[in-house]
Amino acid sequence: MPITTGAHSLPIVSMRGITKSFPNVLANDDINFDIFESEIHALLGENGAGKSTLMKILYGFYRGDSGEILLRNKPISIKSPQDARYHQIGMVFQDFTQIPAFSVLENIALFLPDLQPVYKQKEVEERITELAERYGLHVDPYTIVSKLSIGEQQKVEILKLLLSDARLLILDEPTRVLAPH
Fold first, then answer.
1. How far apart are CA 154 and CA 135, in angstroms?
2. 102 φ, ψ to 5°?
3. Taking the alpha carbons of 115, 119, 124, 127 in that order, is the dihedral positive or negative?
4. Which fold has domain 10-87?
5. Is residue 9 predicted with pLDDT exceeding 50?
6. Pick the CATH number of 89-180 from 3.90.1150.10, 3.40.50.150, 2.30.30.90, 3.40.50.300
7. Each residue of 46-91: pLDDT tens digit?
8. DSSP-H helix ranges across the chain
9. What pLDDT, on a 0 to 100 scale, did the predictor assign at position 2?
10. 8 Å CB contact between 22 and 48
């Protein structure tokens, strides 16, 4: 069920009683968190406080040990990133999720939900170029990802998310590796 626009008083997403532990580490302990439409939320805390873990649970990268996720007050099951993308939730990770031997265009095409198995290269190139120019994330669509700088690779991650039609954008320190200008 895709996220739709509606009353701002109802959270888009609610996380209730989220607990996640790893061997010898309690990363999240009974966390409650609401995310509202058209708002920017920031999770602040020390390294190892569980911020990324909580967001990876919302994105389906991890499964919580307990708790539930609600989309507009209805329980949903997010067992994988594919489930999250179905619910129009996207995430840019601190670490890259690209195939180094593929071009920028190929990496993005693999991620886009609306492309058929055989995609029109020119169409994808135009979508990449338009968004790259709009947001100042310039990168050559035909460059092999392994040839890009770390900052350029992170720009590809951000472009993938912007092109995925996600309505809820999770950014896990996406600019940490970018140059300050």
1. 13
2. -95, 160
3. negative
4. Rossmann fold (3.40.50)
5. yes
6. 3.40.50.300
7. 988 999 999 999 999 999 999 999 999 999 999 999 899 999 999 9
8. 51-58, 81-86, 104-111, 121-135, 150-163
9. 45
10. no
